[in-house]
Design goal:
heterodimer; A: about 260 residues; mainly alpha; MetI-like fold; 13 helices; B: mainly alpha
Chain lengths: ~260, ~300
């Protein structure tokens, strides 16, 4: 306090220093990751000798990584599409109609947000084993819809406001059917939110490891491939794959940011 | 109901149809959750009641697997490790994230705030596995931190920082600082600044004003962040597996061993349900705490 009286900027300076330290801490692993993906030697550790694209070439030539990448794209794309579709329908029903048990239904749909992925993954694994299904990517898709659809639902619900309702009513007065209104009025009007929800679901699915690890055996997704690469010790190959994933996610998030920003204006 | 008393009018028919339409739109989502979320958990709970004997054959129905779990010290130790790790991570990441979020909300000029926040969560978007791996690189004996410390002559031989519970906690705290900074920031910017201004006008010191106005009003943000941290931290397998190694195992690692090595799904089910129970208890405790904080 006394220091503050003598030098009013001290608090601000301390705050700025603390924030700089936090940013340093947050960025440290990312810098290590990306920097040593350009390593030309065999060890992702100092001294840095590069830059070289050797390990990126190796990553794109690695069959396991490429298969994992394709599988992750498939799982992410299909689970996110399903999540957004189901979430959008549910949000539309809840925001536009009055019906019994509405509160209970809303609670059920967002319930998976409050439990850990371990429980969801284990539930699917045990059920599949009980029903005699072998582990497969489709189980992972099902699990990812369970965890991502509540998010898509919440995002859509927040976007369905009074403004669209009036246009919908006008369309209905002009004789449009319920589905016609849904697909040619409502969906296009909240399209940015739908795309943003899709991208968010995709990023989360793309990154999800536990459900995928529990429910796959031979066909695995990218995070599971990387986890198994780690058993062989550290290598710049993992850095290159990791940096590439980082780049993809950042691009998707920039898309989300631009869409949501444009809408706010 | 009314239709039974008087002949159905066009209006009541339209109302009934609207009710059906609303249910119809919500139905696929609800069915998905019930079928692929609720039912599997019920099946898992049923599995947990069908323990395997020592020979791997099904034993008698009942709570046998639960008894085995609580009698086996390696299992209860893993549960304890999980709880301790989660508590350490929740406390540390809240304490570290709060001033950070406060700084973004109060020190950064308004037009730069969004960018400051976007930068703070940028590493979120690396893959979760990759983030833990990057910490492993930084902490390894040949890694960046050892290199720097050796170069500065702080230490004279490389130290293995990874493969212990502290490394796991570090990896978790790194992730959850970002998450908590987000939830706390979202809460801080919603607090009406006039309250604090009024307090200062009435002569409260900056610290008094923070302690009696801003901090109590930001408790919801802290609570949301803490709950998300508990849910995501206690059930995570990736971070402890990569950074913690095999000393001081956490419960999700033991679950994985039960599945992959022992092929004991009933025991793995018991463990997952126990972890969920811990989360539920934490939720109830936090709700009580929130209600008390409001008084």
């Amino acid at each position: 306090m006394i220091g503050r009286l003598r030098w009013p900027g001290a608090g601000t300076a301390l705050g700025a220093l603390y924030m700089a330290l936090c940013y340093g801490f947050i960025f440290l692993p990312v810098i290590v990751l990306v920097l040593f993906s350009f390593q030309s030697g065999d060890l992702p550790a100092p001294p840095f000798n590069g830059p070289s694209l050797r390990w990126y070439q190796a990553a794109f030539a690695d069959g396991r990584l490429v298969d994992g990448f394709t599988n992750s794209l498939l799982v992410g794309g299909s689970s996110s599409a399903l999540s957004v579709l189901l979430g959008f329908f549910a949000a539309y029903g809840i925001s536009r109609y009055e019906f019994p048990l509405k509160r209970a239904i809303q609670a059920i749909v967002i319930l998976p947000l409050a439990v850990s992925y371990l429980l969801i993954g284990m539930g699917l694994l045990v059920s599949a084993s009980w029903l005699g299904f072998s582990p497969s990517l489709s189980t992972v898709v099902i699990g990812h819809v369970v965890v991502n659809m509540p998010l898509a639902f919440v995002i859509c619900l927040a976007q369905l406001g009074e403004h669209q309702r009036r246009v919908e009513a006008a369309a209905r007065d002009l004789g449009a059917s319920t589905f016609r209104v849904l697909f040619s009025i409502t969906a296009p009007m909240i399209a940015p939110a739908l795309i943003a929800a899709f991208c968010l679901c995709f990023t989360l699915s793309w990154d999800e490891t536990l459900i995928a690890l529990l429910n796959t055996r031979f066909d695995v997704t990218l995070p599971v491939v990387i986890l198994s690469l780690l058993r062989g010790g550290v290598s710049p190959l993992t850095n290159a794959a990791g940096s590439f994933i980082f780049l993809c996610s950042i691009l998707l998030m920039v898309v989300v940011e631009l869409l949501l920003l444009r809408q706010r204006r | 109901m009314r239709a039974g008393v008087s002949p159905p009018t066009a209006e009541s028919r339209a109302q009934a149809r609207a009710r059906l339409a609303g249910l119809g739109f919500a139905l696929p989502a609800v069915a998905w959750i019930l079928l692929f979320f609720a039912a599997p958990i019920v099946i898992m709970a049923a599995y947990s009641l069908m323990p395997l004997g020592p020979d791997g054959r099904p034993g008698p129905l009942g709570l046998g697997a639960y008894e085995t779990f609580f009698a086996e010290s390696a299992f209860t130790a893993a549960l304890w490790n999980s709880v301790v790790t989660t508590v350490v991570v929740v406390v540390a990441s809240t304490l570290l994230a709060y001033p950070f979020a406060y700084g973004i909300a109060r020190l950064v000029p308004k037009r730069w705030r969004r960018l400051a926040l976007a930068f703070a969560i940028l590493p979120f978007w690396t893959s979760y596995v990759v983030r833990s791996y990057a910490w492993l690189l930084a902490l390894s004996p040949v890694g960046f931190i050892n290199h720097a410390l050796l170069g500065l002559h702080v230490i004279d031989h490389a130290i293995l920082f990874a493969y212990n519970p502290q490394a796991t906690e570090l990896g978790f705290v790194h992730f959850f600082i970002m998450l908590n900074a987000l939830t706390i920031y979202a809460n801080l910017v919603q607090i009406n600044p006039h309250y604090a201004m009024a307090a200062r006008d009435l002569g409260a010191s900056a610290w008094r004003c923070f302690r009696s106005i801003t901090l109590p009003l930001s408790i919801p943000g802290i609570a949301v962040g803490a709950f998300l941290t508990i849910v995501l931290c206690i059930g995570d397998f990736v971070t402890p597996q990569i950074l913690g190694g095999f000393r001081g195992l956490l419960l999700p690692q033991v679950v994985m061993m039960q599945i992959q090595r022992q092929l004991n799904l009933p025991m793995a089910s018991v463990m997952s349900l126990v972890l969920t129970l811990v989360v539920a208890l934490a939720y109830l405790a936090m709700q009580r705490w929130l209600r008390m904080a409001r008084l």
